[in-house]
Design a protein that fits this description.
Largest sheet: 6 strands, mixed
Bound molecules: nicotinamide-adenine-dinucleotide
Distance between the termini: 70 Å
Strand order of the largest sheet: 5-4-3-6-7-16
Number of helices: 17
Length: 469
Amino acid sequence: MASTKLEPFEATPIDSIPSTVNLCRTTFQSQKTKPIAYRLLQLRKLYWGIVDNSDALVEACKKDIGKPSFETYISEIDWCKNDIMFVTKNLAKWMKDESAPDIPLTNSLLNPKIRKEPLGTVLIIGAYNFPVQLSIGPLIGAIAAGCTAVLKPSEVSPASAMVMKRIVETYLDPNAYACANGGVPETSALLNEKWDKIFYTGSASVGTIIAKKAAETLTPVCLELGGRNPAIVTKHADPRLAARRLLWGKFHNAGQVCISQNYIMVERDILPAFIEQIKITMKEFFPKGQKASPDYARIVNNRHFHRIKKMLDETRGKILVGGEMDEAENFIELTIVQVEDIKDSMIVDESFGPLMPLLAVDSVEEAIRNANAVHSTPLGLYPFGNKAETTKILNEVTSGGATVNDAFFHGSIPTLAFGGIGDSGQGAYRGKASFDTFTHRRSVVQTPGWMEKMLDVRYPPYDGKLKKF
Ligand code: NAD
């Protein structure tokens, strides 16, 4: 069992970055990381690194973001362990060559295949809110694909970043995998290196910086960006079910979840019943209030506390439930605000915190129009209602992913590809998608020498050859 002691945050020296990347690249070029036995060994070591450091990860997530142990287990530790188990079980199958489908007999003699080849040396940049899952998750895909990798966890969750550094450095091949810690200067130094892919999770504004920098060297990117996700509750929805599920989707991690609903549109007929159920459910979930509850996280730091507080100060909406804050603890109560205007800043901006604006609408059509006007490509979508209504919403509002009649449950399915669309991101990962995102599908044909007579037709002079086809 590894130490549960949390180390103070230490940024990686910037001048060590080029040699670290160079070592990873040399190791990749040595072919060492390509055999399946090597990949499986590294994945198993990573698994045991997480198991051995579980207590430290729980403590670190508590220190960084006040995350309840239960949430750290289900959405960080077990999430990574389950993903590793799924990947190791299926890796041999995924690595197999694929034959080209539906080809004529003559082409089949060329043995056309798709080989699954690792992209090379990759950079993974994590966000702070799920500090373990969002860093280790892509790393699982990189190892499975046979890449070498440098991980850059978020410095905004510093205790977790240090535990992950310990796991990477103690359990994985030090010639192939590294963890570089730090903020903007260290990340900028990493971005000055040449990569074969950059996998980034975080805000769209920083995602733009990453994509621009990557474009200079034509480096491919996977971008997992921000939300502004609508939930729509129609008059045929069950108000108690919708209230319970949407509250779960908002209080988890104190609302610091990219796929949590950013705002809820409720058909006017059902609004009073929905609000009543919200109030009842809040009491059921947190009988002594959220501040006294061990089941409610904190805002990650004072900067984000003030960012969220400012949103609440500036809204023209009316607080229906919540509103309590304590700066000393970075505590913000889950706060339900009724807004009158789709252009309210609570809807237009991503709160990335425990704020839940409600907007009354007259019809499903109005909700769809609003959702498309706020953001044409949100990360998530949550329609509640009967089958015809939820299907209509699903058809007419696009999004990276969606859960019908629930909050962000699609993000809890570890084998389902996860990713955004448009300005909520590009590319996807988790399960097989993690392997795919770090894999090059290389088309290869092999032309036997004995076919030369058959292929003679392709050479000039072409005169008179067309009639042979
Ligand atoms: P962030 O963009 O501030 O930071 C993300 C990473 O980028 C960190 O590792 C950070 O060190 C690095 N970074 C920050 N500024 C940089 C710069 N100028 N140059 C280079 N690197 C820089 O994001 P965050 O605050 O950690 O996370 C919140 C945002 O991320 C929200 O918008 C949320 O919706 C989004 N998010 C998306 C997903 C997803 O899977 N789509 C998951 C979690 C969070």
